[in-house]
Design a protein that fits this description.
Elements lengths: L1 E2 L6 E2 L4 H10 L26 E2 L14 E6 L7 E6 L9 H10 L1 H5 L13 E2 L18 H10 L1
Antiparallel strand pairs: 1-2, 3-6, 4-5
């Protein structure tokens, strides 16, 4: 997600390629809603913003070459989203500790200049505080001795 510098609305970016281009040129060419017209026809500051806000952009460090970052929105959970990083080998890394462990076990990436500071596990923030629905457990009805007597009487 990226925020328009004119209207301050958040826009969903359809691919990591588009996102990285916008991020790399942000200082020279600030993002505005019209930028998305190439993949979202008729986009402008007059169109309502997308469903979430993201305080992580542009503070997410550039992803190392060959790696990918994925944010998985969770519809019903105690938190809104999970962030994962995937090295070229395809493993899923879910935390800074996992990234450090991976780098400790794969020094070839460290030699290429990859370090833990290049990873951010910050997640987007929902616009609506009630967006994340808490899971409720179904109430299990316990059989009482009365229920057992009824069953016995049916036999």
């Amino acid at each position: 997600m990226v925020q328009c510098t004119d209207c301050k609305k958040w826009r969903l970016i359809p691919s990591m390629q588009h996102y990285n281009i916008i991020k790399e040129t942000q200082l020279q060419t600030p993002f505005v809603c019209g930028t998305t017209s190439g993949w979202t026809p008729n986009m402008s500051c007059n169109v309502p913003q997308d469903g979430t806000t993201c305080d992580t952009w542009p503070s997410i460090p550039p992803i190392p070459t060959g790696w990918s970052r994925s944010v998985h929105i969770i519809s019903e959970s105690t938190k809104f989203a999970d962030v994962y990083y995937f090295p070229p080998s395809g493993e899923r890394l879910r935390s800074s500790a996992e990234v450090q462990s991976f780098l400790d076990n794969h020094p070839e990436y460290v030699r290429e200049g990859v370090n833990r500071s290049q990873f951010s596990f910050q997640i987007p923030k929902p616009l609506d505080d009630n967006y994340v629905k808490k899971r409720t457990r179904p109430v299990k009805r316990r059989k009482s001795s009365k229920d057992n007597n009824c069953e016995k009487g049916k036999k």
